[in-house]
Amino acid sequence: MSGMLASVRNLAEARIAREAGVDIVDLKAPERGSLGALPAEEVGLIVAEMHGTVPVSATIGDLPLDPDPICRAVLAMAAAGVDYVKIGMFRGGDWGSTLATLAHLAGRGTRLIAVLFADDLPDFDWIVRLKRAGFAGAMLDTRDKASGPLTSLLDRPTLEQFVGETREQGLLCGLAGSLRKEDIPELLSLKPDYLGFRGALCHSARRTAGLDPDAVAAVRRLIPPPPPQTFSCPASSPGTLRVNSNPLPTEVSQRGKKANPLPLWETDSQ
Ligand SMILES: O=C[C@H](O)COP(=O)(O)O
């Protein structure tokens, strides 16, 4: 079961995405780059409203892999309260030292997602190093948004390899990069944990245009949401229905009311 990640750039868009039932709201400023960041203060305000209803991730911006600025940016986003911080693994820079420094943050509970760029032909050997550094997941995306969809940059065996190796390491696995509606069926068959979108959700499919609620709904329809999570209320809780004095636990759907702070699909793949 794969979930739907929607990248949004402000509170109004976050509300549209949540209303459409997306599985993770991803905060990003598309006009500032492939992983453009929103100001941490704004992220905090959005998180405050989304909290407990849908998991939230945020990007830290298109930063070179230099430990100091990366860690500062990650700390700022983590302090803003997001569930996941997404870090672009841009070419050049010092990957080794950056991962070593981030490992300390991961060890203190910050959930990190590495974004590898398909157009840079990433070395999947890094996946195991991400796991060792304590990352929560890895995502494949495109850096140059003019380079076409992920599916035209990498062939199916390569995408399968990414999904397979990421999941083998027990990491959350995401696929994104100018994905179009027609890419969805094939990518779902690879069983990533989530598929990520921005352009396809916007007016005229332009990622810097505003979110189009109809486009969000259309993509959501193509990615079947996970079945509602159900749980039995403890007999003493207010959710317990009593019929003829016999306790009858009420099945309560959490979806759209109070979401698990982790994506619903995370438990499915473990
Ligand atoms: O994380 C997912 C992305 O925001 C994908 O954006 P895109 O569909 O414009 O490439």
Automatic annotation (TrEMBL):
<dbReference type="InterPro" id="IPR007565">
    <property type="entry name" value="4HFCP_synth"/>
</dbReference>
<comment type="function">
    <text>Catalyzes the formation of 4-(hydroxymethyl)-2-furancarboxaldehyde phosphate (4-HFC-P) from two molecules of glyceraldehyde-3-P (GA-3-P).</text>
</comment>
<feature type="region of interest" description="Disordered">
    <location>
        <begin position="227"/>
        <end position="270"/>
    </location>
</feature>
<feature type="compositionally biased region" description="Polar residues">
    <location>
        <begin position="230"/>
        <end position="253"/>
    </location>
</feature>
<keyword id="KW-0704">Schiff base</keyword>
<dbReference type="Pfam" id="PF04476">
    <property type="entry name" value="4HFCP_synth"/>
</dbReference>
<keyword id="KW-0456">Lyase</keyword>
<protein>
    <recommendedName>
        <fullName>(5-formylfuran-3-yl)methyl phosphate synthase</fullName>
        <ecNumber>4.2.3.153</ecNumber>
    </recommendedName>
</protein>
